[in-house]
Design a protein that fits this description.
seven-stranded mixed β-sheet, alpha/beta
Length: 264
């Protein structure tokens, strides 16, 4: 997966990284165009941003989880990031969730904006049962191997404080007229109220941008003031990777990202 890194501050790498996963017919740089990066900077948050070219073919050939883990998460951990959050839109939100399902404990938090959550018949089954808290996953072999058969039982754990404390915090945002809203409401009922955000409208950038700004108001990210208070003098090693391997050489120019993900 190709990536494009945006630093929160010019003189040092932050300890926190936001990994942005695009959705339907989107390009990674659209996160910047639509104000996602500027919203982080306006709040003076000490969080770098990594825009990921998560091509839809990775979902079709079922290599998305492996590529995200080996091409993105592991290399960024090696660079010294202590906290990594996945921020996904539409199928990117789905990707963030199934990555944690398959590789538990590898990220520190998830923001899912208008995520695709699987097929509508499964959602209808959960609705009929009275919601995600009351629903009981069918026993025995599943009728097919689609990942949503495993995703919903995993998401159900967020309804139990005992289980949720072992999962990365999950923040959900969606438009009330989104085409996936029926499934979003199912998940929202299992999350704490302070981690669910809604807005008028459907499945498009105006809603996602507004939701992102709402989520940022409560997301537990460090501020630049906090980061600077604990920063060594200029010239000293400033991150874990610099203390271990020496100063990081910045690229002369950021690498451009290429087209990507079709979302559901």
């Amino acid at each position: 997966m190709k990536t494009h890194l945006k630093f929160a501050q010019s003189h040092a790498r932050s300890d926190t990284l936001l990994v942005f996963l695009p959705g339907a017919f989107l390009k990674p740089e659209e996160f910047e165009r639509e104000g996602f990066i500027s919203a982080v900077r306006e709040r003076e948050l000490a969080a770098d941003a990594l825009l990921v070219d998560a091509d839809v073919s990775y979902y079709y050939d079922q290599t998305f989880i492996e590529r995200l883990q080996h091409d993105v998460i592991q290399p960024q951990r090696a660079l010294g990031y202590a906290s990594i959050w996945l921020v996904g839109i539409s199928i990117g939100g789905f990707g963030a969730l199934i990555h944690e399902l398959a590789t538990p404990g590898t990220v520190d938090g998830i923001v899912a904006l208008a995520p695709y959550l699987g097929r509508r018949p499964i959602g209808a089954e959960i609705h009929k049962a009275g919601g995600l808290r009351a629903w009981k996953a069918p026993e025995g072999p599943p009728p097919d191997e689609e990942v949503d058969r495993k995703l919903w039982p995993w998401l159900q754990q967020y309804a139990s404080p005992r289980h949720a404390e072992h999962l990365p915090p999950l923040y959900l945002g969606f438009g009330l007229s989104d085409r996936f809203a029926s499934n979003h409401h199912l998940l929202a009922e299992a999350l704490p109220p302070g981690r669910v955000f809604t807005t008028e409208g459907g499945h498009d950038w105006p809603q996602w941008s507004q939701l992102w700004r709402k989520v940022l108001e409560v997301l537990p990210l460090p501020s630049l003031t906090q980061a600077d208070a604990g920063r060594p003098p200029r010239g000293a090693a400033t991150t874990l990777s610099e203390r271990v391997w020496g100063p990081i050489k910045r690229p002369a120019a950021a690498r451009s990202a290429t087209p990507m993900a079709i979302a559901a």
